[in-house]
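Journal club prep, notes for RB
We'll compare a predicted complex against what the paper describes. Inputs for the NAP case:
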Amino acid sequence: MTQPTTTLALALRDGGYAKAPTPQVPDSLAPFLDLRDVPLPGLAPGQVLIAVILSPVNPSDLFFVQGGYGQPRVQGQAAGFEGVGRVIATNGADALIGQRVAFLGTGTGAWAKHAIADAALCIPLDEAVSDIDGAALIVNPLTAVALVERARSGGQAFVVNAAGSQLGRLILGLARDEGLTAIAVIRRPGEEDALRDAGAAEVLVTSDPAFRAQAAAVIKAHKPRVLLDAVGDQATADLFFAMPSGARWVSYGKMSDDAPSLTQMGQFIFMDKHIEGFWLSRWLPSAPADRVAAVVAQVQTRFATGTWTTRVATELTLDQAIDGILPAYATSSGKVMIRP
Ligand SMILES: NC(=O)c1ccc[n+]([C@@H]2O[C@H](COP(=O)([O-])OP(=O)(O)OC[C@H]3O[C@@H](n4cnc5c(N)ncnc54)[C@H](OP(=O)(O)O)[C@@H]3O)[C@@H](O)[C@H]2O)c1
């Protein structure tokens, strides 16, 4: 088969980083993305060419297209960090030819008809894993396992905010199966029962006028010492300062555009509290290969058996995406998927 040399993609208009801090969600994607044919470079050793089936829009993608993420943009290259697709060509990874794989768009982005990826970061999929679950099988699921491991290192109970997110729900299910007590925090009411069903032992709603009192009672009862945080607002900081000695605030996302005040600096001195970060892009290369293989197998089994599922808000074609992503994303009802 002749290898394509170009592909239709949502291409990045700019390269590098933004010159000022970016919001989590921009007003429009039109200043950042362009639907056009982009060149597909020849495959380097260890790379594969993938016909993309489906790719999610993650919060990290929205930061990235604006230049506000932890790695620079390449102007003219497709956006999109992960997806599912079929391998149609390789340079030295022939065993993958024809396989349906979950992949990271490490060579070129996933919001395109074709993407180039590193074979080592492709996960051949079990037939029982749907395209939807396969499309979002790497970024959130591997992070969920790594974060629950961190939570466990802090004791029996932990707090997770943005708990209604796809990642939050994966964390809740895994925590329950591992016998941990997960305290879920969300910003608005409505999903409490669903989150209890998903695995939360307690659910707190930050917009509830009784939030502070309820949080104090829950913290007193369960003594959580890890706060898994994807929000980074003042409610998060206040919650952290209400937690017991030795508590760790693990920042892995910044859904809020607020800059929280650290109102009780003495707690870092006298109560041995810590703030730290987590980024899958650092965890993945630093974890032992056998640990990563075990996590990948665990993640795939959870989706294949229906223990985990991926909620979908809507599917968009490439030509619907630039105008359609943000309105669908704002419904907060699951992943927006791009089907190129
Ligand atoms: N560090 C890493 O390696 C890593 C890896 C994977 C994911 N993440 C991060 O994990 C987070 C969740 O990802 P996801 O794909 O699961 O997200 P998602 O499914 O798109 O859900 C986003 C969630 O964020 C909540 N949210 C948005 N703005 C908020 C605000 N201002 N205050 C409180 N909550 C807010 C939403 O709440 P509503 O339902 O109320 O709208 C929604 O539940 C993101 O920040 C992502 O970047 C980090």
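Talking point for the session: The longest strand covers residues 47-57.
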